[in-house]
Every structure is written in C-alpha cells, then in structure tokens.
Amino acid sequence: MRKLIARVRNRWSDSDVRTDGGEVSAERSLLRRDSIRSAPFWLPPFLLVGLFVYGAVLWNFVLSLTDFQGLGAPDYSSLDFENYVIAFNGGTPTWSELTVDPVWNSLQNTIILMVVFAVVCLVLGLLLAILVDRNIRFEDTFRTIYLLPMSLSFVVTAKFWLYMYNPQTGLINAAIGLVGIGPVEIVQNPDLKLGAVAFALIWQFSGYAMIVYLAALRGIPTSHFEAARVDGASTVRMYWRVIIPQLRTATVSALVVITVFALKAFDFLFSMYGGYQPGPSADILATRMVREAYANQNWAYGSTIAVILFVMALFIVTPYIYTQYTRGEL
Amino acid sequence: MADNDTPLSRRTVLKSTAVAGAAGLAGCTGGGNGSGSDAIELLHAWSSGDGNAAIEALVGGFREEHPDIEFGEDPVNGAARSNLDQVVSNRLQANDPPSTFQTWPGQTLTKFGDAYADIEGDVWTDDLKNNYLAGPKEQAQLDGTYVTVPLNIHRINNLFYNTSVLEEADVDPESLSTPADVVDACEAVSQNTDAVPFAHQTSGSWSTTQLWETILLAEGGIDGYNAFIEGDGDVDQVRSALENVVELSEYYPSDASSISFTEANTMVMEGDAAFIHQGDWAAGAYSGNDEFNYGEDWGQITYPGTSGNYLLNMDSFPYFDNNPSAEATKTFLSYCGTAEAQVLFNKEKGSIPPREDADVSELNTFQQDQYEDFTSSDNQPPSIEHGLAVSPNIKTNISDAFSGFLEENDPDATADALISAFQ
C-alpha cells in the first residue's frame, strides 16, 4: 500500500509540465490526464445528474417490472414484463381485479400529434424565417410577434384556444363562417379534436422553429446566395437546392425540441378539458400515464407507460446525438 | 491553458465545490419533522371562496372551545383538490401522515384504506350514531369500520330554474315528474323564449356524469341505482338514462364545450337560460347576487323522478393510524361531529349538516328547505361522480366512458362501457 502511494506521489511530482499539447507518456498519465484533473468541475454535476436523472429513469424502469399498486412499498423480489404485455394486449393483470385497456389508442394519438405538430411547425417556421430574412421592414417586430406565443404557458394558451374555438363567439368559427361554413363544434368533436390541439400547439411553437432557422440562415454566407443568383437560379430553386440543404443541423435541433414539446402536451390537454380525461380521440400517453398513476394508483403500470414514452423520446433524440457525434460536434 | 496561470487554485475549486454540494444536500434534507408534537395538521384544498370561509369558521369555533389544543402553524394548506390526494399519498408512503385531511368519504376511502384507523367509540359515539341519517353513516365507514367524520352534504339531484324564463315559457316546474317531462319543458322553453333551455358545460365530463347518475336514479329507482353501483347494473336502464341525456343535449348552449360550469350557471342568473342541473353549490353563486333571490327570481326542485332521494356529495375528515397528534385529532373530529360545528361550517359553505338534530335557523331559507328535504328523505344514495359510490379505479373507468360519450353521444357504446367499468 505504502509502495503504491509512493509511486503515485512520485508520478505526481516528477511529471513534466507539457505546454506543447503533446501526449504525456502512458505510464505517467493517470493523474495528469485532463479528464482526471478537471474532475472537480465535472464530477459533482455528473454524479448529481447520474443519480437524479439517469438513476430515476432506471428506477422507473425497475418499478415498471414490479406489481406496485396502492399504498406501501414496491416489492422488488418478483420482477417480470407483465405490465408491458398488458400495455400492448390489455387484459386483467395480477395486481388488479379490473381489466386494463391497452395503450394503442393513446400511443396512436401521441404519434399523430407528434408527427403533424413537428412537420407543420418546421415547415411553417422555415417559411416564416425565409420571409423575415428577406430584409423586410419592421423585421424585429415580426420576429417578436411570431415568437411571443412561445412565452405563454400551456395553461394560458389552452384557455385562450377554448375561447377561439367557441362556436358562438370564437374567432375560428367567425372566420370559417365568412366562407359560409359552420358554426362547427370543435372542442368535443372526435374528428377535429386532435387537430384542434395540434393547431393550437403549432400556433404556439412555430415561432420557435422560425428563430432556429433564422439563426441558421444568417450563418450562411451571402456569397452562396449571390453565386446561385449569378448561375441563374430562381428564388425557389435557390432556396431548394442551395440554402435548405445547409439547414440540416438547424432542422434536427429544432425537431428534437419540438417533438419533446409534443410529448409534453399534457399540460395543454389538462387545462383544456379540465382534467386528465380529454376523451378517447385526444388521449395521449402522458394523460393516460397520469390517470393510471395518480387516479388509480397503479404505480407500476404508470411507470410502464412512462418507459414507453421515454423510448419514443429516445427514438427522436438518439439519431440527433449520433449525427452530432459522427460530425465531431459533440 | 497553461497550468501555471490557473487563476483558481485546485484547492479553491475543491473547496467551493464542496460548499456548493453541501448547500445542495442541505436543501434536499431540510424541512421534514419541524412541527410540534401535538399540533393538529389539517390538509385541505379550501383555499378560496366559500370553502375557505367555511373552514375558517370551523377552525375558529374549535379554537374557542378548545383553546389549549394547537393547530399546526398554518392550518390552511392550500392545494388543488386533485393535488391534495397526491400530497397525502406521498406523506403516507413516507410514513408521515397528517392528522387529517379533506376527502370524500364512501368508496374514495379505499384509496388509502389501510392507513385509516377505527374511531368507533372515541369519535363515533352513540350520540353521532343516533343523529346521523343512515346514508351518511354508511359513507363514514370503510368495510363496516368507522374511520371518518362527514362534515357537510351537498345535494346532486337538483334542478334549478330561472322563474321569469319559465313563466315566459309557460312551464310550471312543480308539474314535472319524470326526466322526460324535463325534455318537454325544455322544448317549451325553446319554442316560447329566446333563452337556452338547459345550461350545461361539456368541456369536462363531470357535469354530464352527475346529470346521468341523477337520471339513472330517476329511471331505475333506488334499487336500480344501488344495483349499478354494486356492479350489477341493468344495461337497459343505463342506456335509457343516457338516451335521456342525449335528448337533453339538444337544449344545451351551442358553445357548451367551450364554457365552464360558472359560465353556464351565470346564464341562469342572467335570464339567458331556463334550467341547470347541478349540485347545490350552484345556489352559492345565486346567494351572492342581491338581485337574484330564492323563491322570487330562482327556484329549485328535486330532479323530476327522484323525490324521496337525497343524492349525497360529502366532505369528511378521516382519522389516520399512526396519527401525529392522536388525542388532539380525536378531539377535533369529535367537534366536527357536533351539530354546532356543522352549522358554523355549512352556513358559509352553502351545504347542510349531516346530523338530523341541527338547529338550522341560522342557515338561509334555501338551505333550510334542503335540510327539510334531507331529514324527510327515504334514501340518501351516494354520488358516483363525487367519489362516494365507487372506488377510484372504477370511477376512472366511468369518467373515461363519459369523456367518450361527450365526443360521440352514443348511448349504446357508453352503456356497455359503463357496465364493463366494474370488470
């Protein structure tokens, strides 16, 4: 032991200060490594994040394998995938006397909401960004107007859209009334419900996509625009062939943030429908999860739904992180 | 960066990291077991309006009578009702129950079932047993054991109306005797006046669930209703009640899905609507309006077809095992069981005392009429929507069924879903 300490101390004191950035020889590197020497900076947050974020994710997964229900403590001695079978097939689990519905309906709604919301948001954000980027007057004002809805909380926008969708006094029905349609029931209409929610979310978040794209557009050298012009490209062609391909990173990073917002649309539905029961055609995994966990105290089953939601988020985030990694940006 | 010119020494960095870490940990571990040993800790969600006035009156009355018993520093712990259960659930998981909290009695008690303790004898003395009516007494028990003290009763099977609108429509509310009569009366209102016949909100499912349960009580009678809540309902009765709701829905405001209960209720107050079916908290809003008086401008009838029944919605204070202030809590619960305390509370809350020997002369005329209906009622069935009749899991299934009903208005599918809610 003493020998070991002596050796370590020896290394510590003997090592050279290398200012040329060259590598320290392997046998001397242990304590001189950058990663070790910077440990006081990264280690505490690393441990805290590891414990409270990844530890919690892992614990949630373990919980989903138990039969934890009601009060008391979960029993970790018998772990199985029963809850996942129930989640996809339905049936009566061993921990309940009641049958439990599978999650297909809310899973489907979640995916539709996510795809529609993300795609429309990005397209709209890109169009707005291109318009704002074309040296228009009052550019700052427009930028602020488009971004402003994002600063509102879901609770405010949900109540606001409840007014907007009102068949008697709402602006949406007044607008479609001008072309001779309506008034149309929107909020409790099974065909329009999810679309109405997506529309409100798009209104709120397309400004965010715009800002991300605008920043990326500003980063493209003017010479690219000029070269395309000199070569005789039309405006549409210029954007389609020259500019938009350069916005890949911006697209991916905006997409990640926006889909994560879609997964969290819970707050919006909760405020709009006065609880976590938005009805079968607008039920998403998040509302289902809260219902199972907090209304029914089916903690393990709620955890199972949370894991499914987590895996969905991973599907979105992993390719992003991987491309960042392969491009050396991480 | 060259090592020699580091502006911070390694030691400084380590020290500050340690301090920051310690501060963070202190933040995590702080709080907890601060309060004194015997102070009563009452958790409730009555943080504003009439509920807040009512709980303050109750606690004030208790302090006057028992000045030696302390309430926790802040007896008024505000939280939304749905969050309150969550707070209590977390406390119970941590084996740190509060003294008592605001909860629905009846089947809602099954949620924290094992955490409650028997208070028969200590709190539920013969005095209480003799003076509570059968319905509320049953709701105070969990599997035959007295664990909670009901404090007030709101009634669900009411039909409120605006007198002048009904006069204009030439409808006599007292002549209505079945749910179908209500539909006919709505038709008369829509023919003869500009008012909305039946004020209702459909953005959330709760108003429709309680409307349906009232109509089920009317159509199936007390036996049909009891059979349903025991999981043995008759699908035809359930469907027929739903069909009646669909007929009524023709007379809802056209923007029912975008308004709240408060807005629907205001329509009645302003003469824009004829009827509203609600719990008697709706009357609380009327009594706050000097221009809108009971008997003259508005009236209430027992929902047609449900006479003799007082459909219960109650709040209660249960007793937790492992109680942090055992004796004081029992004293407080015993106080809540007295007629005097219940009058203090219900005077502000707009509901009525569950005891039949209360002196209600201090309550308003409407409450006195309701109290008379209550004490002379044959049955006091528990409400489904308000958590007395079915356990929380089944209630979630029922609410799921109604959130689908609001979308599709399909009595057949909903009736099946309601029957299978118990399976």
Automatic annotation (TrEMBL), chain A:
Q: What is its main location?
A: membrane
Family of the protein in this entry: Belongs to the binding-protein-dependent transport system permease family.
**Record keywords:** Cell membrane, Membrane, Transmembrane, Transmembrane helix, Transport
Q: How does the entry describe its membrane topology?
A: Multi-pass membrane protein
Where in the numbering of this chain does the ABC transmembrane type-1 domain appear? 107-322
Q: Where are the transmembrane segments?
A: 41-62, 111-132, 144-164, 194-218, 238-263, 299-322
Source organism, top-level taxon: Archaea
> What are the annotated GO cellular component locations?
plasma membrane
Q: Where in the cell is it found?
A: Cell membrane
Name under which the protein is recorded: Sugar ABC transporter permease
Q: What organism is this sequence from?
A: Natrinema salsiterrestre
Name the GO terms of the biological process aspect.
transmembrane transport
Q: Pfam families under this entry? A: BPD_transp_1
- Lineage, broadest ranks: Archaea, Methanobacteriati, Methanobacteriota, Stenosarchaea group, Halobacteria
TrEMBL record, chain B:
Q: Which domain of life is it from?
A: Archaea
Q: Does the keyword Protein biosynthesis apply?
A: no
Keyword flag Disulfide bond: no
Q: Which InterPro entries match?
A: Bact_solute-bd_prot1, SBP, TAT_signal
What Pfam families does this protein's entry cite? SBP_bac_8
Question: What's in the keyword line of the UniProt record?
Answer: Transport
Give the family per the record.
Answer: Belongs to the bacterial solute-binding protein 1 family.
Q: Which PANTHER family match?
A: ARABINOSE-BINDING PROTEIN-RELATED, OSMOPROTECTIVE COMPOUNDS-BINDING PROTEIN GGTB
Could you identify this protein by its name?
ABC transporter substrate-binding protein
Organism whose genome encodes this protein: Natrinema salsiterrestre
